[in-house]
Alpha/beta fold hydrolase
Amino acid sequence: MCLFRHAALIVLTCLAAVGQTGIEGSWEGPVQTQRGQVRLRVHVTKAADGSLSAKMDVPEQGAFGLALNSVTFAEGVFHWEMKAINASFDGKMAEAGSEISGTFKQGSEQPLAMKRIQAPAGRPQDPKPPLPYKSEDVAFPSKAEGVTLAGTLTLPQGKGPFPAAILITGSGPQDRDEALMGHRPFLVLSDYLTRHGIAVLRYDDRGVGKSTGTFANSTTTDFSRDAEGALDYLRKRPELNPARIGLVGHSEGGIIAPMVAARRPEAAFVVLMAGTGVPGAEVMLLQAERLNAAAGVAKEVTDQNTALQKKIFAILREEKDDQAAQDKLKEALAGIPGVEAQARGFLSPWMREFASYDPAPTLQKLRCPVLVLNGEKDLQVIADQNVPPIEAALKKGGNKDFRIVRLPGLNHLFQNAKTGLVQEYGQIDETLAPVFLETMTTWIRRHTGLEK
């Protein structure tokens, strides 16, 4: 069982009082996977209208803030689903309100008892009311048929029309805040930009939170159609200047934003937050090497892993027939736990596209201003690997207005970091480094006429 694809998200900040009998709060219980036991930690909140929402962490898998769907609590029965991984839970709350016992389903069924726990507090940069701007829940259609995205639009005080930024999340099923390991980077970023005169739209990925559609079988190209729908929506908002609406993409979002801007020249600007400049297979190979080295993994183990990865990517590249590719992958992965699930994961439409997709030709088509931001301690998208080809592609395409900023000491989430390791993200109180926020905001303001 795999509870997330390859990147994951945040804990929701809510406190559970002792003796509480409502469902709001945090709950945790163990389930058995092919790789051993893991903890499912679910955080539930109730909106003013009484509707429930929830997010799930799986600490052993490095997954945090995974958005849950169809969250209900009626007559003592707690139900939730996670459509992105075809998982669900139904459980009955004990009279004391401290435990919920029921059945977890994902392919097979197994008992799951969840106990109430104390959730961590919010991060220092989380915005706190009263807020000096308007915040509106919105919904808009994707350019892809049958998908409606739900999000939050924040509007500066005043009459406008305002410039605007569309925030595009990284890989994995993510919510509008890009919630991750106790942090909500897009919430903090939208707050900062809006306080500085820039409207911001952030939205749940398809199949996540209140957005419709299916995440599991979607590709990066599919996600770009969602972001294009966001652009169309904002261009119709009377409070916004349609000539001053741009795209800000983090990680995989840094691939999606150029896809949209290349198709839609009316996009006013593009910001790449740890965007890639080489095919995904190359990104993942170096990522694994650097993460292993930083974690102290023996070189011979890393070399073996690299060799296996190269074999897998060669199969994906050369074998177009899924059944034949699956047979070859199972042979290559023989002896590894969960070989069937592993092989299917590598053959997902997303992985097939991401591994082979080269961002450079699309970057060459960009005519709008481009800001490239990379952290020098990023061990997921290595600056030395990706920044030079991004710069080369922009120059080759004749782009006359781009800026590249490599930020010393910052990791993949643009936090000030010691190691850059993934497990460090949640240990850092800072959500986004001030230098990152200031650099992006100043650049967008200058390119949208808010300052010279």
Remarks:
- The first helix runs from residue 185 to 195.
